[in-house]
Specification:
The complex is a heterodimer of chains A (100) and B (171).
Chain A lengths: L3 H21 L3 H26 L3 H31 L13
Chain B lengths: L2 H22 L3 H22 L2 H25 L5 H4 L6 H22 L16 H11 L1 H29 L1
The chains are: A mainly alpha (100), B mainly alpha (171).
Chain lengths: 100, 171
């Protein structure tokens, strides 16, 4: 079986890739998907730690996080739809009206 | 080295490859497909670790619901905008530098963490199989399970409100 360090390293690498994607890409939908990648990396770390303790509550927490992620994407996608309908573009550099 | 360990390495490499492809792919549909392959590899890792419940949830909720929704939206919004031609914003160099620094720092902390490097034993956690987990889940955590439905209803109402408010500001 794989050890904890390997899984944690994979989780950290995926988190860093997702963060780079959010900072670097211009497309709003691609940025959303990179956030999903970061969330997946965090879930992998959570599963790794909950396997170390071998309790049930880790898996329950993962289930709740899945539900929250589904709710999050159900709200984020309509917001992106509204933004792209107003600007007729998915380019986040065109959304400079959102600057405070 | 057992076959499970080899498969964990294989799925881990596939997940990393999917993550890198997400950064370099040009069309959002290819990014979505790379993310789906990454999520499926993670589900394979969970299955190899013996956490069957999380593997099933990963495939059902993430790949089956969230990513299918995302693919629908990509097909709906196929606008040829500047973000297709120029993939990267002007934050490219600082973003990559920050990501490399973060990965290095987290990797160093992971190296320091597990000096024993305790091997994860799937036999130690038999309750992660689907049937015992479900019985325990609905016996102990039924209130949390019901509260998630409240959260989902709130999300549906919020999504409808966002769509309606945008329509009102249009006309």
């Amino acid at each position: 079986m794989a050890d904890t360090q390997l899984l944690l390293g994979l989780s950290f690498a995926l988190f860093a890739l997702g963060l780079v994607g959010v900072m670097v890409r211009r497309n709003a939908l691609v940025m959303l998907m990179c956030m999903e990648l970061m969330l997946n990396a965090v879930i992998l770390a959570l599963v790794t730690f909950s396997l170390r303790t071998a309790t049930l509550s880790g898996a329950v927490l993962v289930f709740l996080i899945f539900v929250v992620a589904a709710a999050e994407i159900a709200i984020a996608i309509p917001i992106v739809l509204q933004l792209s309908r107003q600007r007729s573009s998915l380019d986040v550099e065109g959304y400079d009206r959102l600057k405070g | 080295m057992t076959i499970e360990q080899l498969l964990v390495y294989f799925f881990g490499a596939c997940a990393l490859l999917g993550g890198v492809l997400m950064l370099v792919a040009r069309h959002p549909m290819r990014v979505a497909l790379a993310l789906i392959s990454c999520m499926l590899s993670l589900a394979g890792i969970y299955a190899m670790l013996g956490v069957h419940v999380v593997a099933v949830f990963q495939v059902l909720i993430y790949v089956g619901a969230v990513m299918v929704f995302m693919v629908y939206v990509i097909m709906l919004l196929d606008v040829r905008d500047p973000s297709f031609v120029r993939r990267y914003s002007h934050m490219l160099v600082p973003g990559v530098v920050l990501g490399a620094l973060l990965a290095g720092a987290l990797g160093v902390s992971a190296m320091k963490l597990g000096a024993p490097a305790a091997p994860i034993d799937s036999v130690a956690a038999p309750s992660y199989l689907v049937q015992p987990f479900s019985v325990e889940f609905l016996r102990e955590y039924w209130l949390h399970f019901e509260l998630t439905s409240v959260l989902l209803v709130a999300a549906v109402v919020a999504a409808i409100a966002v769509i309606r408010s945008g329509r009102r500001s249009d006309g």
